[in-house]
Design goal:
two-stranded parallel sheet; mainly alpha; globular; 2 strands
Length: 464
């Protein structure tokens, strides 16, 4: 068999494996919907399966397996939350932390990742302040764990993944595992709410279209799925069948994301896709740029088609939602739906307590004591300032500056701006409610490299 024949068989096997995984996750969605207890069994199976993959892998391959495990947990977190699969709310963050700690045990950290160790240390004073100010009677452990599980997850993930070498082909495999449970969630949403028209009451976020769960979280994960399928379309669709197949999948996920009526996750997806395509086009050769333009043309047609279909299915209400209007077409005064007030309230907490802040979860506790209800901030930046004081400025400096300093000397990660953009956009509209904002940030710190094709030299046969 010639070299071209071998390549054809490898590509065919990869295609069949990809399609089989998608079919399997379609079955998972059906089982979760029709046999609800399966969600918990599925969750337990995921924990054990990926932990086994990490332990069984050779040390050199463990980072990839850790990333695959964490990405799968990130992609499935909201699905398990909405279907009661997890045994406690923050389970996904703790699982990511567990997988990361396992990787740290085997592989250690980069000698230049010390900034993220400092970042983790700077989170500690807020715990002490919380103990002193809030008191143990307010369930200190639960309150602190709720607000710090996300930041700790980010810090440990960054500590482990900083400057970890990974082939671009392996990173594409990691992103594939991110998309698989999102496909399951999308199918589940269609089963839970097949007709969007029957659930529309206005232009507010639609819980029914979001599986009866928080539209903000659902839209954020579906937006991540949009990005993952776009990457698949541009970098892992070598034939017409896969291009069409991935375009259809991308369209379906995009539609379900749009009709949640939660704008943050969809706008974040657009930012990610734009950042990814910019770097991909910039890094590509002339011939590859032509293919990218062709695929972008298909993507643009898909985008317009999905929007038109969404508008039709919602009776034009989705157009009004993104125009910040109510169902009668009247402009809404507050574009942020109350988030600005929470942001300003957090800043006031920083002004009143500039040195050490109000302590972990202190901002929410103060709002409760002042009679404003138990409202959690949607903005991680303002929450950090309020609860960590001046330490928050150092924390933000590390989180923002360190990746760009690394990028200055290592520009191989074509997803750098997409991953970092997801983190920054998400923490500004959804804080760190889900593990995705923590772990996706760390993926921007990878040392991504491209394998060079072996040079084939013709053998010179000397005539005697």
């Amino acid at each position: 068999m010639g070299l071209s024949g071998i390549r054809h068989n490898v590509n065919q096997n990869n295609q069949d494996h990809y399609l089989s995984l998608i079919a399997l996750h379609g079955v998972f969605a059906l089982l979760i919907y029709f046999v609800p207890i399966f969600s918990k069994l599925y969750f337990l199976g995921v924990i054990l399966y990926f932990f086994y993959r990490i332990i069984a892998a050779q040390d050199i391959n463990k980072p990839k397996q850790v990333m695959i495990a964490c990405c799968y947990i990130v992609g499935s977190e909201v699905l398990f939350r909405m279907t009661g699969g997890t045994f406690f709310y923050e389970a996904a963050k703790y699982l990511v932390i567990l997988y990361i700690l396992t990787g740290l045990f085997y592989n250690g950290i980069s000698g230049t990742a010390y900034s993220y160790f400092i970042y983790l240390v700077l989170l500690v004073p807020s715990i002490i302040v919380a103990y002193v100010e809030i008191g143990y009677d307010s369930n200190l452990r639960t309150n602190v764990a709720f607000v710090l599980s996300g930041p700790v997850c980010l810090g440990l993930s960054a500590l482990y993944l900083f400057d970890k070498k990974i082939k671009v082909a392996d990173l594409l495999d990691v992103i594939k595992y991110l998309s698989l449970p999102i496909i399951s969630m999308t199918i589940y949403l269609f089963l839970y709410n097949p007709s969007i028209k029957d659930t529309l009451r206005g232009t507010q976020s639609n819980f029914a279209a979001s599986g009866g769960f928080g539209p903000n979280q659902v839209a954020t994960i579906l937006g991540l799925g949009m990005f993952a399928l776009t990457v698949r379309l541009f970098m892992k669709s070598p034939n017409l069948f896969l291009k069409v197949f991935n375009i259809i999948l991308l369209g379906i996920i995009s539609y379900r994301g749009i009709v949640t009526f939660s704008r943050g996750g969809i706008l974040t997806a657009i930012v990610m896709i734009a950042a990814f395509l910019y770097l991909l086009y910039k890094k590509s050769s002339g011939r590859q740029k032509g293919r990218i333009v062709y695929s972008f043309f298909l993507l643009s047609i898909l985008g317009v088609s999905v929007w038109v279909f969404s508008s039709s299915q919602t009776g034009g209400l989705i157009d009004k939602r993104y125009a910040n209007q109510d169902k009668l077409g009247r402009g809404k005064e507050d574009l942020s739906t109350g988030r600005v007030d929470l942001f300003l309230d957090d800043l006031q907490g920083f002004i009143d307590n500039p040195f050490l802040g109000v302590g972990a979860n202190g901002a929410k506790e103060l709002r409760l004591k002042n009679g404003f209800g138990l409202k959690a901030s949607h903005n991680e930046v303002s929450r950090l300032l309020s609860e960590h004081g001046l330490f928050a400025i150092i924390i933000l400096f590390i989180l923002i500056v360190k990746p760009f300093l690394y990028r200055h000397t290592n520009k191989g990660n074509v997803f750098f701006f997409a991953f970092l953009g997801f983190w920054f956009a998400t923490i500004n509209h959804s804080a760190m409610r889900i593990s995705a904002s923590a772990f996706i940030y760390a993926l921007a710190l990878l040392n991504v490299y491209y394998e060079k094709r072996p040079i084939r030299r013709k053998r010179i046969i000397q005539k005697r």
